[in-house]
Structure formats: C-alpha cells, structure tokens
Automatic annotation (TrEMBL):
Alphabetical keyword list: Hydrolase, Metal-binding
Binding site for Zn(2+) 2: K137, H170, H199
Binding site for Zn(2+) 1: H20, H22, K137, D256
MF-aspect GO terms: hydrolase activity; zinc ion binding
Protein name: Phosphotriesterase-family protein
Source domain of life: Bacteria
Amino acid sequence: MIRTVLGDIAADTLGVTDSHDHLFFASTKLPGQELDDPAAAEAELRAFAAAGGQALAQWTPIGLGRRAEELPALSEAAGVHIIAATGLHQAVHYSPEKLPRLLDGLAERFIAELGEGLRGDEEPDGPPLPPRAGLIKVAGDFHQVDRHASVVFEAAAAAHHATGSAVAVHLEGGTHPLGVLRTLHDRLGVPAGSVILGHLNRFPDPGPHREAAEAGAFLGFDGPSRANHATDWHLFDLLGSLVESGHADHVLLGGDTTSAAARAASGGGPGIPFLLTDIRARVQRDFGPEVAGAFFRRNPARAFDADWRV
C-alpha cells in the first residue's frame, strides 16, 4: 500500500509519478522565495496533471511550511495523488530556539505523523490533521553524516521499523550516498530497498550510484531546477550509465521545485510540469518506453510501497 493524503491506495494504482517535489516549502535559506500560495500550488499541480502526471511525493518535512491542511483539497482538485512527508531537514533550516523542541521525542513524532496525521508546523505537538505522512524525509551534510543527522537518522530508522515507511534522504550536494546507506542500512537496520537517496544529479559520479543501486537502494535524480542547473547537463549521462549497467529499476525522477521563482504557473519556471513535458519525453526518446515506464511508474510504486503497520 502507498499512503497518500486522501488515504491508502494499492501501489499499482499510483501512476505517473514525480518522486520528489514541493508544493509548499519555506526555509530561512531561501528568504523571499517561499512556496506558500495555495492557488499557485494548485495551478502548478493542475499543469502537472495536464501533462499526464498522476502522483507527486512532497518531501517537505516538519517545520518548513508544508501546509498539511491544504494537501487533501489540492489532491482532490487536481486529481493527483499526493504523498506527504514527516521527517526533519538539516539543522540550518530551523531557528536555534525551535530545533530543541523538535528534536525532543523525534521518533515518536515521526511515528505519530505516519499513523495518526500530520501536525501543524507551528504546533508540532498539537492535534493531528487529517492527512497522514507516507514517507520520512531526512538529510545528510556535505560528505558526512553530522551529529544532527545522526540523531535524525536514528529517529527515522525507529519510525521505519515501526511503520514500514520509506526513508528519503536529502544528500547535500549529492554527496556521501554510500556513507548514508551504511548508516541507515548497516548500522540502523533499514532495508536498502526502503532508502531513497536524493539529489544524486548534483554530484555526477556514476561509480557510487551503481554501487548504491547494487546494494538495493533507490536513486533519486531530482532536477532540473534553478538551483541545480549547473549539473543538469550530466543527467542523461548518469541515467544512461545506470540503464547500461542494468539498474534502470532503481531510478526515480523528480522536479524538486523549492522556490517561487522556479514555478511554471507563477514564476520563471521550469516548474513541476517540465519533468513530464521535457525530461520524460527525452527519456522515452533516448531509452525507450520500457525504461520510461520504470522511471515514472514502476519504480515509484515500489519505492513508496510499504507494509503499513500503523
């Protein structure tokens, strides 16, 4: 089953999926670029649906303006499944006053959001809202799992073991995928097939990508966006390497729209629809419909599938 904001669905009904994006997102690292407009989010999601999109995983975790109360209505209005996230980002995204409160009882908070419902960003210990989380978002640091990440990873692993949900990882600059996998899989016992390694396009080294795929992890290539364009031209070389080495069944693609300026509906784009109008079109042309079906349908259905226990 895959847990969406409107309820659990069979994995094989998920459809064409943007495996990493943001309808709402607000961070002190991007002042003035908050994704906080429900009307703009709906316009972006409708454009994605018009391009053939059927599902979107929003990786916005606790405390970063994920607007949980808006997600069910958006899903219904656009006719797109939305998978919401619990979890916690890097420490730099939170104020020093807020972070200690969030870290207290973190595993229990994750489990509650997966099983009972998301909390409001300003009331992390408040009553649950109707939508439940369907994945756990965490983050490493540049070439390392720092002290903050170690605490969050332990909570995420506990939540995975309690619920069966996937753990999706922001890799800073695309770095340290194998170190992250060692921490989650080898030390904390999270199955590699329940780990999604994000932003691999930002560090275009195919060797670690193949090794992570061989271990069983899912590989997230989540661009392009304005923040990542310097490495966009490497994307198809990296995908081609994985296809040629027999690892097409481990690839996930997403838009990762994190700023208002990057939206197609209300900014300068390319926005969420670009993933389908341009990236998927080239995947089909370069690698064929079978590979495109794996990247956009079959792999997301496996990556976000869970034997839900709460």
